[in-house]
Design goal:
Radius of gyration of chain B: 34 Å
Number of strands of chain B: 0
Pfam family, one (chain B): RNA_pol_3_Rpc31
Number of strands of chain A: 9
CATH architecture of the largest domain in chain A: Orthogonal Bundle
Distance between the termini of chain B: 74 Å
InterPro entries (chain B): RNA_pol_III_Rpc31
Structural class of chain B: mainly alpha
Protein name (chain B): DNA-directed RNA polymerase III subunit
CATH superfamily of the largest domain in chain A: Winged helix-like DNA-binding domain superfamily/Winged helix DNA-binding domain
Strand order of the largest sheet of chain A: 1-3-2
Radius of gyration of chain A: 28 Å
Helix content of chain B: 25-40%
Oligomer: heterodimer
Structural class of chain A: mainly alpha
Number of domains of chain A: 4
Order of helices and strands of chain B: HHHHH
CATH class of the largest domain in chain A: Mainly Alpha
CATH topology of the largest domain in chain A: Arc Repressor Mutant, subunit A
Order of helices and strands of chain A: HHEHHEEHHEHHEHEHHEHHEEHHHH
Number of helices of chain A: 17
Low-confidence stretches of chain A: 204-225
Largest sheet of chain B: none
Shape of chain A: globular
Helix content of chain A: 40-55%
Keywords (chain B): Nucleus
Strand content of chain B: under 5%
Distance between the termini of chain A: 37 Å
Family (chain B): Belongs to the eukaryotic RPC7 RNA polymerase subunit family.
Largest sheet of chain A: 3 strands, antiparallel
Largest interface: A-B, 44 and 42 residues
């Protein structure tokens, strides 16, 4: 982890969880895996505070624990996961665009709380939506449940690892920490719940916590009576799926900018068809035949098979190589070159940064060096067609800001 | 100064170091004298690109602000503890009777809090006379009590200390408070009139 990343993590933790959690979190990020007492000793915080902080961090999937030999539990921070907190607004906005306000609130609650049971999420979201509705109207639990199920079906929300069921509970003392099991096949299995109810508006009597003194503090009997039907089954937001969505969006909008709306729709269809068949880290999607693509195009699009074929050929011939042709069966087999596409997008971003920072002539030099990998001073001047003095000046400027580096070779 | 005086006889304008090493050759004009310190920030040639605007950009920005604010209200935001006070020097009535309970991280606490009128009265006084920050901590503590029945892994703010010495001493229990819920000295949030 670079110093800048650690500093950023520190600020994020402080903003969202306060100074104590920040101290513990940053300490773990810096030093790696450590047991409880060592953390307390090294940070100079009381054991109680460390315990609280670790609970919060684990709840939010920022710290994991492992039982080592001799029963010692060690805690490890996930720096990358902390940095993802920057993207929370984007995740929530994505959910809003796909599943409207209900979906937005579900994802927001899951992100703010780390992990929740489905019943808790549904209840909270229904209450929140009811607040915003007109007087007299309430949000039904069933509708929120439906949206939740749709989010799970499209893998945006997934189950947290489970506590394994203990077969025999009297084989000695329980382990110091449960080893959570990730169940692949149950990851997106929604328990059969019958959540019946409607959202409640927050009544003024609920605000007694801050308000007037009462002789008897009323107990919350309503929540205690019913046992939670899905106790122990927790859900979390599946960040990788959101990242996949962002990736798809980036590719589609790049194609739309470079070519036209129809090509981007074709690419979007291809990506959608590959969602379940292609793992997220794959270099290219599974081959799709032109016939299949034609059948899967969105309903509103009335382009003929011939036109589709022409578009596909055009896309495959484009020098950027977003789409590649892998065979001729079924009217032509086409793939999307994911890694190549992302590489091109990254390069374009870099060039844009250089252009905005240093100007278009520097950008020209930068593109040259990027393309040719290694260039000598003289070659830069010749290829870029920039006078020697200015070329030297620009190269030095980019060198001083670490965009370009020198490599000393022997002659 | 001594070397200057010594070099006066050799030639005018002689400096203590070799001028050529700096890059000013013999006979070259010296650079113009600088009459003021160089500007703090050099003029910026290229302005940065504006932030993403448009519907998505603004919505995401608004969301970010909202999330930051919302997180502060949640129980996951742990506030630093109030420092210990010396109770001998402060009026008795400011001391808040708090029962503290040591607990392990893994056990689940559902303390039964029988309503106590005396405790609530003191809490009333506390509410009227505490610092804003103190108020928030108490509020968050009470909020957390309500959320005890929810998530098992969720953290509780309120600490309960087991009064093990209850039967053994002559002092009243509030003597042993560690001042966690100290009522502040300032009258910032006084709602009642002072006579």
């Amino acid at each position: 982890m670079t110093q800048a990343e650690i500093k950023l993590c520190s600020l994020l933790l402080q903003e969202h969880f306060g100074e104590i959690v920040e101290k513990i979190g940053v300490h773990l990020i810096r030093t790696g895996s450590q047991p409880l007492r060592v953390i307390a000793h090294d940070t100079g915080t009381s054991l109680d505070q460390v315990k609280k902080a670790l609970c919060v961090l684990i709840q939010h999937n920022l710290v994991i624990y492992q039982v080592h030999k001799r029963g010692v539990v060690e805690y490890e921070a996930q720096c990358n996961r902390v940095l993802r907190m920057l993207r929370y607004p984007r995740y929530i906005y994505t959910a809003k665009t796909l599943y409207s306000d209900t979906g937005e609130l579900i994802v927001e609650e899951l992100l703010l709380n780390g992990k929740m049971t489905m019943s808790a999420v549904v209840k909270k979201v229904a209450d929140r939506l009811t607040e915003t509705m007109e007087d007299g109207k309430t949000m039904d639990y069933a509708e929120v449940s439906n949206t939740f199920v749709r989010l799970v079906d499209t893998h945006f929300v997934q189950r947290c690892p489970l506590v394994p069921a203990t077969e025999n509970s009297d084989t000695g003392p329980p382990p110091p920490a449960p080893t959570l099991v990730v169940s692949e096949k149950d990851m997106y299995l929604v328990p059969k719940l019958s959540l019946i109810g409607k959202g409640k508006r927050r009544r003024s009597s609920d605000e007694d916590a801050t308000g007037e003194p009462k002789a008897k503090r009323p107990k919350q009997t309503t929540d205690n009576k019913e046992p939670i039907p899905d106790d122990g089954i927790y859900w979390q937001a599946n960040l990788d799926r959101f990242h996949q969505h962002f990736r798809d969006q980036a590719i589609v909008s790049a194609v739309a900018n470079r070519m036209d709306q129809t090509s981007s729709e074709i690419v979007r269809t291809m990506l959608r068809m590959s969602e379940v068949t292609t793992p997220s880290g794959a270099p290219f999607t599974q081959p799709l035949s032109s016939n299949e693509i034609f059948r899967s195009l969105p309903v509103g699009y009335n382009i003929s098979k011939q036109v589709l074929d022409q578009y596909l050929t055009l896309l495959a011939d484009d020098p950027l190589e977003f789409v590649g042709k892998s065979g001729d069966s079924g009217g032509g087999m086409y793939v999307i070159n994911l890694h190549k596409a992302l590489g091109s997008l990254a390069t374009a971003t870099l060039e844009s940064v250089v252009q905005e920072r240093f100007g278009s002539r520097c950008a020209r030099i930068f593109r040259l060096v990027l393309q040719k990998k290694h260039l000598e001073q003289k070659q830069v001047e010749d290829f870029a067609m920039i006078p020697a003095k200015e070329a030297k000046d620009m190269l030095y400027k980019m060198l001083s800001e670490n965009f370009i580096s020198l490599q000393v070779g022997c002659l | 100064m001594a070397s200057r005086g010594g070099g006066r006889g050799c030639g005018r304008g002689q400096l203590t170091f070799n001028v050529e090493a700096v890059g000013i050759g013999k006979g070259d004009a010296l650079p113009p004298p600088t009459l003021q310190p160089s500007p703090l920030f050099p003029p910026l040639e290229f302005r940065p690109v504006p932030l993403p605007s448009g519907e998505e950009g603004e919505y995401v920005l608004a969301l970010k602000q909202e999330l930051r604010g919302a997180m502060r209200q949640l129980p996951y935001f742990i506030r630093p503890a109030v420092p210990k006070r010396d109770w001998r020097r402060l009026p008795r009535e400011l001391r808040i009777r708090v029962r503290k309970l040591q607990k392990e991280r893994t056990t689940i606490i559902l303390p039964k809090r029988p309503p106590k009128t005396t405790e609530d009265k003191e809490e009333t006084i506390q509410k009227l006379e505490t610092l804003e920050k103190k108020e928030e901590e108490v509020t968050s503590e009470e909020d957390e009590e309500k959320e005890e029945e929810e998530e098992k892994e969720e953290e509780e703010e309120e600490e309960y200390d087991e009064e093990e010495h209850e039967e053994e001493t002559d002092y009243i229990m509030s003597y042993f408070d560690n001042g966690e819920d100290f009522g502040g000295d300032s009258d910032d949030n006084m709602d009642e009139a002072i006579y």
